[in-house]
Specification:
single chain, 209 residues, mainly alpha, Arc Repressor Mutant, subunit A, Tetracycline Repressor, domain 2
């Protein structure tokens, strides 16, 4: 490995270390109470060295959110690839959201909480292209799965793939965010959280099957 390649690898490893430290502190202390100096100390960098990678805390928080979306996108792709028919792939992708909520709760929490602190980048013009790209890729994946289901006969032909994909994924995201905020209180503790999620998935799947 040449000097340039080694330096690039070290730079990527350092950036990942910064993101991991930021994730831990944002999760433990919240966005407002976390300081750049604390993040620098956690990953054993000077504050000046940290600013070589991220100009401010807002930029760092954006990178954490994008990383959370990358994890979700990877899980969606993996789950869809293991299923056969289009409708089974849609259900598998919705199950991936449940996996994020159960097994990657920190990322789910960070994506939700940090986005609420970055509202200026979520509205108006496309100031946050990395996030927009991830959302577009998620919707494109869901739309392609729906088209496959139409070809194999498991999804109704009159369903408009792009619109249905955006509707389903937006509804799922909103549902999971509400569940994150209120837990089983969403249904006045009448049903377990997992039962509520499974019911939601069945309703969405049956709407296109």
């Amino acid at each position: 490995m040449g000097i340039v390649e080694r330096r690039e690898r070290e730079k990527l490893e350092r950036r990942n270390s910064i993101l991991e430290s930021a994730e831990e502190l944002f999760f433990q202390n919240g966005y407002e109470k976390t300081r750049m100096l604390e993040i620098a100390d956690r990953c054993e960098l000077s504050k000046g060295a940290l600013y070589l990678y991220f100009n401010n805390k807002e930029e760092l928080a954006k990178a954490v959110v994008v990383r959370a979306h990358d994890i979700l996108l990877e899980l969606l792709q993996e789950n869809a690839s293991r299923a056969e028919t289009g409708v089974e792939k849609i259900e598998a992708m919705l199950q991936a959201l449940l996996t994020v909520y159960r097994d990657h709760y920190r990322y789910f929490y960070l994506a939700f909480v940090l986005e609420s602190h970055l509202q200026d980048y979520l509205i108006g013009d496309r100031k946050w292209p990395e996030r927009v790209d991830r959302i577009d890729r998620i919707h494109s994946l869901a739309a392609e799965v729906i088209r496959q289901g139409q070809r194999d006969g498991t999804i109704r032909a009159e369903v408009e793939p792009e619109l249905a994909a955006m509707t389903a994924m937006t509804a799922a995201e909103g549902f999971m965010h509400r569940l994150f905020l209120f837990g089983s209180d969403v249904c006045n503790n009448r049903y377990a959280t997992d039962a509520l999620i499974e019911s939601f998935i069945k309703i969405l799947v049956s709407s296109v099957a």
